[in-house]
Specification:
Elements lengths: L13 E12 L8 E11 L5 E7 L6 E3 L18 E3 L7 H9 L3 E5 L2 H4 L10 H18 L3 H5 L3 H4 L4 E11 L1 H14 L8 E7 L14 E6 L12 H4 L11 E6 L42 H20 L24 E6 L3 E5 L6 E5 L3 E6 L37 E7 L5 E10 L6 E7 L7 E9 L4 E9 L19 E6 L2 H6 L7 E8 L4 E11 L12 E5 L1 E5 L5 E5 L2 E4 L6 E7 L13 E5 L9 E5 L8 E12 L1 E3 L3 E7 L7 E3 L2 E5 L3 E8 L7 E8 L15 H8 L17 E6 L5 E7 L10 E7 L19 E8 L3
Parallel strand pairs: 3-6, 3-7, 7-8, 8-9, 9-10, 23-31, 24-32, 34-40
Antiparallel strand pairs: 1-2, 2-6, 4-5, 10-11, 12-22, 13-16, 14-15, 15-22, 16-21, 17-20, 17-22, 18-19, 18-21, 23-26, 25-29, 27-28, 27-30, 30-32, 33-35, 35-38, 36-37, 36-39, 39-40
Helix pairs in contact: 1-8, 3-6
């Protein structure tokens, strides 16, 4: 790339930095309002209205300790309690903000500590809350910009800069902030009252828990190869799941940055630069690929430079539609000087690409020679032999072969074409479902995965038309991405699709008699001595961006409903699943569920539901069976929504909570137990009636009252002692059991009425006389505030055990 086109070069404007704080914002699902604080970096002297970039940080500690007793842990972290201060995560992107502002952009980075402190209770990980926060800031900017009088009332830092052009908004989100701004883009597109237009989003190491990308929004996703937090690089789903979601030519770019971790894009998450304590999220310093001293690891400064360059590239391409910078994002083999020594790979979907091959369940594959080929599934279904890569280890075969979707079966999965060979020659032919035209395209672009550390796999690409004419377009090759040699202890490398291109020469095609308007098959021709590849898809491609257009879609929101169980009979409860948006075509959404021990599932799920135009609610019911038995206080029946075609999940997880309305059975425990050495002390727990749940009773070993002699660590079998305490060896000299923090548990199975707690006893030849142990069953709040105690035993209980020498 020419230096003059490098988006990482500062622009002509000086910048001004300041902050604003507004009244706290009530947010759906969070009990305490959250802060409305932001840092603004604006260009000085820029005329006219300027495009606006809004940054949202991810989930980090909301507060850090500054003063007081360090051993005192607060009950709540929002607002930050006395002696603690907010972590200024929102100030961590100043380098990117200053770069954009120097190029004429208004930038604002917002604080989300109040969400980070409370989103543990949010089903969706806080995506909706973050969307509301982002849209609240945008709404304020829209209100300030609405008139001269409103502008005069804005905070000083806002008035000091140019007014925003809210028809050109770029959202930049890091980690959970990435999923949050994606949800904000979805919600903004469907809100007729929104006074802004999201024209692009740059997602830094984002989460994608719900896997619901925003249709019609040009998107670039930065994937740090050494991410120790979102280690499965699930942000790839913002491309893969969007591919077939709608008729959408928005550019979608995946940017793989080798040597980058999760945290160092933000200075406030970087050791040596942050105000609060911070850390390198990669968890193994000795890892040969991603460890702190690995040759390919980027320093924090190097990583931030890459981040700033690609944020600016996204602004220039996705919003500014600057095709001179487009090659940085579209899979071309170019690099920006401002990114330094970093190795950055990209692939892309959308823009001026015409789909040639998108493998599906009906795709036909045949082979000749030693070539082996099949279609395979990217994710687990009932038949695991259909998996492209069956790897259930920590890292798996991510990101294109993702880990299970919350363990929920029945979700739609993609297929890819797997081709392997053991010597040169032969061919794997993939027949298309119908004739496809690549006439007018100048290259054929394929996204190809090879195993990590794999030697270079070289292959030719040949097209076949409806009359059987054939033409080899050219050769391509792919080498495996780096990883450790021991996947059990080292980062094993990523299964990530590299973009390869071969030229489509219309003159050669004509000379060969190949009709580029009627391509019916693509052939892979093995050229290297051996190889294995997975072809994700193939596209006829021309450079440039497609026309900017609105993509209509629906949002499906799964609500939450709580009902009482009842004492008898079965009734169907309809779930609150709403549909927002208007389209003139059928949409499809996948609805799934999981049995987390309830034995109750919505009728007909999982299934892909067709949504006719005008639909506002989906009809899904759950059978609720009444009884008079004690059960869990709330039995959860989750329901998940994921877009399939022309629809996305907004509140993508919800469902039914069934509240138990039956009393807990009374609990009695034999207060004393006696035993001789070599046997066991046994206490029996008895319920006054059966329960439908596991009833557990915690028992804490406590000191024996004087003058009794307490059992010590030598009086019990060593294997039991080590298993109960986590010690590596038996204490020498022996210590009383009460000094080891020992807890025992008694469990009563569902449907049963008795259970036991036991302490096994070691036999020895020493005459010790009578020894004792004392146990306490804690009452509610006795161990710590909020400790639930044992239902049916509100006062707790004191138990004793007596041991005598073996005869």
């Amino acid at each position: 790339m020419r230096a003059s086109a490098d988006p990482g070069r500062p622009g002509p404007y000086r910048t001004r930095t300041g902050e604003y704080t507004l009244a706290d914002l009530p947010v759906t699902g969070l009990p305490v309002p959250v802060e409305m604080t932001a840092v603004v970096v604006a260009p000085v002297g820029a005329s006219g209205k300027r495009p606006l970039a809004l940054f949202l940080h991810g989930r980090h500690e909301p507060c850090y300790f500054v003063d007081g007793d360090p051993d005192t842990f607060p009950d709540s972290f929002w607002p930050c309690p006395a002696g603690w201060a907010p972590v200024p995560s929102y100030r961590g992107y100043l380098q990117s903000q200053e770069l954009l502002a120097s190029q004429g952009w208004l930038t604002v980075s917002v604080s989300a500590n109040g969400i980070n402190a409370q989103d543990f209770a949010a089903d969706d990980g806080g995506a909706l809350a973050r969307s509301e926060l982002v849209r609240a800031h945008l709404a304020r900017w829209a209100s300030w910009a609405a008139s001269d009088a409103a502008w005069a009332s804005a905070p000083e830092v806002v008035r000091a800069g140019p007014r925003p052009n809210l028809s050109k908004v770029l959202l930049v989100g890091h980690s959970r902030g990435g999923e949050g701004v994606n949800r904000a883009a979805v919600d903004s597109a469907l809100d007729p009252a929104a006074r802004w237009k999201v024209k692009g989003q740059l997602l830094l190491a984002p989460t994608a828990f719900g896997r619901n990308p925003a249709p019609g929004v040009p998107t670039a996703v930065v994937l740090p190869y050494c991410d120790g937090d979102v280690f499965d690089l699930q942000g790839q789903d913002y491309l893969d799941d969007a591919r077939d979601l709608a008729t959408d030519r928005s550019l979608r770019s995946a940017v793989l940055v080798l040597g980058a971790n999760h945290n160092f894009f933000n200075t406030e998450w970087t050791p040596g630069e942050s105000v609060a304590p911070s850390f390198d999220d990669w968890f193994d310093d000795a890892d040969p690929t991603c460890g702190a001293t690995a040759p390919g690891r980027l320093s924090p400064a190097e990583q931030r430079a890459v981040g700033a360059t690609y944020v600016a590239a996204a602004a220039r391409v996705l919003v500014g539609r600057d095709t001179t910078v487009e090659p940085l994002l579209d899979g071309s083999a170019v690099r920006a000087p401002s990114a330094g020594r970093a190795v950055v790979l990209t692939h892309a979907l959308g823009a001026r690409r015409d789909a040639l091959l998108r493998p599906g369940a009906t795709t036909s594959v045949t082979t000749t020679g030693t070539a082996r080929a099949r279609t395979c599934d990217t994710e687990a279904v009932a038949d695991r032999t259909r998996l492209c890569v069956d790897d259930d280890s920590l890292f798996g075969a991510t990101p294109h072969f993702p880990l299970d979707f919350f363990g929920v079966g029945g979700a739609p999965v993609r297929q890819v074409v797997e081709v392997g060979w053991s010597r040169r020659g032969g061919a794997a032919r993939v027949r298309l479902d119908r004739p496809v035209s690549v006439s007018g395209d100048d290259t054929l672009a394929l996204r190809v995965v090879v195993p990590p550390n794999a030697a270079r796999a070289r292959f030719g690409v040949r097209l076949v038309d409806a009359d059987g004419s054939r033409l080899v377009l050219g050769d391509a090759s792919v080498t495996g991405l780096p990883g450790g040699s021991d996947p059990a202890t080292q980062m094993p490398g990523k299964y990530w699709g590299q973009e390869v291109r071969v030229r489509i020469d219309a003159k050669k095609a004509s000379a060969a008699g190949l009709d580029l308007r009627k391509v019916v098959a693509v052939e892979v021709l093995p050229r290297s001595a051996a190889g294995k590849i997975w072809v994700l898809d193939a596209w006829g491609r021309r450079p440039g961006l497609a026309a900017d257009r609105t993509v209509p879609f629906l949002r499906v929101d799964v609500g939450r409903l709580t009902v009482e169980e009842g004492d008898a009979g079965t009734r169907d409860v309809r779930l609150p699943i709403s549909v927002t948006g208007r389209i003139d075509r059928t949409a499809r959404v996948w609805l799934g569920s999981a049995d987390f021990g309830t034995g109750t599932l919505p009728a007909g799920l999982p299934q892909v539901v067709r949504i006719a135009p005008g639909t506002r609610h989906l009809d899904v019911t759950v059978p609720v069976v009444g009884n008079t038995l004690d059960d869990e206080d709330l039995l959860q029946v989750p329901v998940f929504a994921r877009g399939v075609r022309n629809a996305v999940g907004g509140d993508w997880i919800g469902g039914l909570a069934i509240a138990d309305d039956d009393p807990s059975p009374d609990v009695t425990i034999t207060p004393t137990a006696t035993a001789v050495e070599g046997t066991s002390l046994v206490w029996t727990v008895t319920l006054s009636a059966p329960s439908n749940r596991f009833v557990s009773v915690d028992m804490l070993v406590q000191p024996v009252a004087a003058p009794g002699r307490e059992l010590d660590s030598d009086d019990v079998p060593e294997d039991w002692l080590l298993a109960q305490t986590g010690l590596d060896a038996r204490p020498v000299p022996p210590v009383p059991l009460s000094e080891l923090g020992l807890f025992l548990g008694a469990f009563v199975e569902p449907g049963a009425t008795t259970g036991t707690a036991e302490i096994p006893l070691a036999a020895d030849a020493t005459v010790e006389g009578t020894e004792q142990v004392s146990l306490r069953v804690p009452a509610p709040d006795e161990l710590f505030p909020g400790y639930p105690g044992t239902p049916g035993l509100p006062a707790g209980a004191d138990l004793t055990g007596t041991v005598t020498d073996a005869p």
